[in-house]
Design goal:
Helices cover 64% and strands 0% of the residues. It is an all-alpha fold and 236 residues long.
Length: 236
């Protein structure tokens, strides 16, 4: 339903210059995290505007787009899945959640994870067991690990931090810079809502956590407090 038309519309919205910029920005060269990803140069606001023209799309309709080699087509599909989840009944929400986790190999760049994981995985698991997040966090896939920690953004916004902190502890030894940034970002979001909770975690872990993770986590602290953590926090 509409898939060929959507692909054509996205291509028309693309720009060769933007495609080259996005390929560099999202690290698509050999050996980089986005190696092989294909961009056609569509900016996200244009993708969102196009999606508004296709209000009848279901989760199943957009699966061919989610399995596309073109980044912007996968992004369109994920935005459609978020909308379907947020406007659907309980059966639809579960269907979207299951499809999402069945297709994580296609949710394979940080922007794709970040615009979808909190709104689908986090939202679905609110009030349910969070064990799926711990399975994802132990995955060999960078993107599944990022889905795990980003999903907790949904919990953070509702004042619940336990899973974020537990997953952050589990991911302290992750080797990927993108994970250091993601975990640090979520810790920063915890601190924006309850600095005491964030500091309790950081006082225990700041000496062993990756430097990038720590810098992200303390970004909103005062300059003096940031320096204390960067030196290795000492009370008293």
């Amino acid at each position: 339903m509409h898939i060929s038309e959507i692909k054509t519309r996205l291509k028309e919205l693309g720009s060769p210059e933007d495609a080259l910029f996005l390929q560099r920005f999202f690290k698509t060269a050999p050996g980089q995290y986005g190696h092989g990803d294909i961009f056609i140069g569509v900016r996200v606001p244009n993708t969102r505007r196009l999606l508004r023209e296709y209000r009848g799309l279901t989760a199943d309709d957009v699966m061919p787009l989610l399995r596309s080699p073109v980044h912007e087509e996968r992004l369109f599909a994920l935005l459609a899945l978020v909308r379907s989840f947020e406007t659907g009944d309980e059966a639809t929400r579960e269907r979207v959640y299951r499809l999402y986790l069945d297709h994580t190999e296609w949710i394979n760049n940080w922007d794709l994870v970040d615009i979808s994981a909190p709104h689908i995985v986090g939202a679905f698991l609110e009030g349910r067991s969070s064990e799926p997040l711990y399975r994802l966090a132990r995955s060999e896939s960078l993107w599944e690990r990022r889905i795990a920690i980003l999903a907790t953004f949904y919990f953070i916004r509702r004042g619940r931090f336990d899973d974020t902190l537990a997953l952050a502890r589990l991911l302290l030894g992750d080797r990927e810079d993108l994970m250091h940034k993601a975990v640090g970002w979520m810790l920063r979001e915890v601190g924006k809502r309850d600095q005491a909770v964030a500091e309790e975690f950081l006082k225990e872990q700041c000496r062993i956590m990756p430097r990038t993770m720590l810098r992200y986590a303390i970004e909103k602290f005062t300059p003096e407090l940031r320096q204390q953590y960067l030196r290795g926090f000492r009370e008293g």
